TrEMBL record:
One of its GO terms (molecular function) is metallopeptidase activity. It comes from human gut metagenome. GO terms for cellular component: cytosol. Residues 3-92 form the Metalloprotease TldD/E C-terminal domain. Coiled coil: none annotated. One of its GO terms (biological process) is proteolysis. Belongs to the peptidase U62 family. This is Protein tldD. Pfam families: PmbA_TldD_3rd.
């Protein structure tokens, strides 16, 4: 089952477990997972896929006035109450 989060640069959906879906008046997406038996379930990613777009990396960089370019990134986490997220990268460049 696919859960499309962003399509053509537009937010289309959310990762939901039963509790958060009920609180937001939405349908659960089956993304509830526990860190361990001692933790309550919370929305977490399963396998994440990013489909290629039509723009080249250079075209994307040139279209951004200020941003961070990270060609590779790894594990991350999100604070579901604020939407803030972190992830690790072995290389990043500030573009301004």
């Amino acid at each position: 089952q696919y859960n499309v989060l962003i399509e053509n640069g537009i937010l289309k959906g959310y990762m939901q477990d039963k509790l958060n879906a009920r609180l937001m008046g939405m349908t659960p997406t089956g993304n509830g997972r526990r860190e361990s038996y001692a933790h309550l379930p919370m929305p977490r990613m399963t396998n994440t896929y990013m489909l290629p777009g039509k723009s080249t990396p250079q075209e994307i960089i040139e279209s951004v006035e200020y941003g961070i370019y990270a060609p590779n990134f790894g594990g991350g986490q999100v604070d579901i109450t604020s939407g803030k997220f972190v992830f690790s990268t072995s290389e990043a460049k500030l573009h301004e």
